[in-house]
Target: FAD-binding oxidoreductase
Amino acid sequence: MTRSTPSIRFVNDLHSKLNCTPVGCISMVRSVADIRSDLAEAKRRGMAVAVAGGRHAMGGQQFVSGGMLLDTREFSRLLGFDAQRGLVTVEAGMQWPELIAHLQRLQPRAAGDVSPAWSIAQKQTGADRFSIGGSLAANVHGRGLTMKPIIADVESFDLITADGEQHHCSRAENPDLFGLAIGGYGLFGIISAVTLRLVPKRKLLRAVELASVEGLCAKFDACIAAGAQYGDFQFAIDPASDDFLSLGVLSCYLPMPDDTPIPADQLALAPADWMALLELAHTNKSEAFRRYADFYLASAGQIYDSDTQQLSFYREDYHLVLDEKLGHVGSEVISELYVPRHCLSEFMRAAAADLRAHDVDVIYGTVRLIRRDDESFLPWAQQDSACVIFNLHVQHSAGGLAAAGEAFRRLIDLAALLGGSYYLTYHRHATARQLRKCHPNFEAFLALKLEHDPEQRFQSDWYRHCKALLAGDGASQTGASQTGASQTAAAMGLGA
Model:
């Protein structure tokens, strides 16, 4: 297999840097024939297979220790565009900026033509270089105020199973695989091609105000009633302030006439500005929030395209610069909690008290909305909810990882007490009790995985962790992450 590396290689996720994983080999995928060849080789060698694209995922679901890693970053051709129906088909390794650029190229606008073009409905937030196949596997969502996860935007996809067979999956054809593979975290096969449902590209006006988490959902409702399509609430992160997890910047995006021009001189944060905000979020949280709020308030009334306003700056390896200033090796780890909308303020008050009491270092946080997913087999959006995202700073040491695990478990418990849940694969800190309570059909999901993949060809370290956790073998809640941090620190020449 000449496309694969011949010996053990270490790979890691791009954000938390806590998933340093020794893989047996890496194969660059460029075609369906490559995937079939790799699966046959993995079977011959008795290797498990995992697939990765952008490598942003943090919970270990994209890597498998000792296994074969299929890298899809060069598997990214445009396969078709249906301008009548608003459908686009791409190879699964294509990433979101490429897709948006393709759609712009395919729909040139003549002078004076203001008719809507087709573009994406949503993508994940925070970073852009996620593969389309990986986005389906994680069933991502964005800042849509009335949207379900991305499964609602998928017309169909092709899935290559362990036997090398390709299955076309839609709501009418192989509907069981459709619901299992979207939000299936790569455990049912390799997604090779995706057909997405597009929406008319719109001009949007950014509306901004400072708001309190008390009554926030009523404000979201008012934005929706005014026609807002996207929005979020980014809250204050300084535990020494009375505004902690309470005051925030509410930004919503209202539709404008399609001929509304976009001024060339609009305010924008440059990469250096984002890096300055990141540093302040670690060293002077009130100042970070003040600067962020001032910028967004000053940008109120600006005009954006509905697709490119979803793109965002992300500097990979940004924490290497911060580590020198902070004096330790660290990174941020995300958790996303779901609570019924009417419970949001209660959850945020409880979370603020807990995070203060345990001196947890919150770097970033936001609240979004999600509509119930009634199509995937393992839905994380089990009801209409407020989504609360916490980005916590974690020191790469045994003590730092243990404290992070405790913080995430306490947050999960707070959400669960209110009838809420958590996102499965941002980290591996949840207990077996929490996993069963918040995702009651998870064990049925594992049983179906074995039914569709009896040799367990498709695996990941996250999958192995969850199986061991539910088997009750006494595995450490944070052991895998601790090992990853030590390996990462060693690879960087730093002490953990």
User: Anything to note?
Assistant: Residues 474-496 have pLDDT under 50 and may be disordered. The longest helix spans residues 398-417.
